[in-house]
Amino acid sequence: MTDLKDRLKEARKAAGKTQKQVAEAVGITQPSYSELENGRSYGTRYIAQIALHLGVNPVWLATGKGEMRPPLIEEIRRKNLDPLLEKYGVEGLKEKLPELESHIHFIFNEKRPINSRVARKIEAGLELPLGSLDYDSTAKEASNFGSNVSPGPRIQGRVPLISWVQAGAFCESIDIFEPGDAEDWIPCPTNHSDRTYALRVSGDSMTSPHPGQKSYPEGTIIFVDPDRAITNGCRVIAKLNGEATFKTYAEDMGKVFLRPINPIYPLMDVTGTDISFCGVIIGSFSPE
After folding, report:
1. Predicted confidence band of residue 12 (pLDDT cuts 50, 70, 90)
2. Percent residues over pLDDT 90 in the chain
3. What distance in Å separates the CA atoms of residue 120 and residue 118, rounded to the nearest whole number?
4. 77-86: which pairs have CB atoms within 8 A and are 24 or more residues apart?
């Protein structure tokens, strides 16, 4: 088994990063990081952040166990479908999932990708927990990082991380994004519909200058569910004047407003305007 210093070098070089880039990304000094790669330091509490930045499996980076790269969502879904295929066979799955008969054929006979919509329908048709086909059971090894790390929330499936241009188009479409349309597929730790997607916050209109107030700094990942009901005070993605924007939805005295969190930006009165709502924010993740 390789040492931590060797795994760090391998992962960093595979990602095409310099020591300085890695150190700055996770918030440590370059000399501190250099000591890790030189073997003069044998551990760090920033392992998870380093793994995330380099795009490698944090379990592998910390312990040397498992594969360097986390499995792709397609690989996880196929792995989880193998026991079902063995149990029912292709024809048996077609019988149990009649509305997906053609999809079952393409998935197993022509190795077509398993998109999010099909995965959710398979789970529903076979009475499996929502998101279970997207769950990598080997992820439980992450609880072995150290005594101060406990299992996180149950991942409810992966959602596409898309661009703001795509989000605007999504307002007008009912189609589910295919893997090729997304920048990445990321785990969502809360219940959501199969049309949920993620966005990376741009700008500071939803950044609070006041400590302790809910805030979404630039770079924050937000999870957006188009099927969640809009309520007064919820955060939404709205399409206005052809562009998607992230704001707080507010109703007052019969009027509708889009309110920024940052007070330097103006309140937007959208009453009676041509506006589309692309979904409600159901969660967020802010990288360190």
Report:
1. very high
2. 26
3. 5
4. 77/114, 77/119, 77/133, 77/134, 78/114, 80/132, 80/133, 80/135, 81/107, 81/114, 81/122, 81/133, 84/126
Instruction: Answer for the pair 250, 262: CB distance below 8 angstroms, yes or no.
Output: no
The Cα–Cα gap between 228 and 248 comes to: 15
Tokens describing residue 262: 């940052």
Model-level pTM?
Answer: 0.52
In tens, the pLDDT along 119-147 reads 878 988 898 876 778 776 655 444 344 43
| DSSP string for residues in 164-226 | HHHHHHHTT--PPPPGGGSSEEEE--S---TT-EEEE--SSTT--SSTTS----TT-EEEEET
The amino acid that residue 133 corresponds to is L
Count the neighbouring beta carbons within 10 Å of the beta carbon of residue 17: 17
Residue 179 pLDDT: 45
pLDDT in tens, 270-288: 998 888 888 999 998 876 5
Distance CA 15, CA 12 (A): 5
- Give the C-alpha separation, 249 to 254, whole Å: 13
The secondary structure element, H or E, covering residue 158 is: strand 158-161
Overall size of the chain counted in residues: 288
CB-CB contact of 126 with 104 (8 Å) = no
Q: Are 223 and 192 in contact (CB under 8 A)?
A: yes
* Identity of the residue numbered 166: Q
248, 233 Cβ separation under 8 angstroms: yes
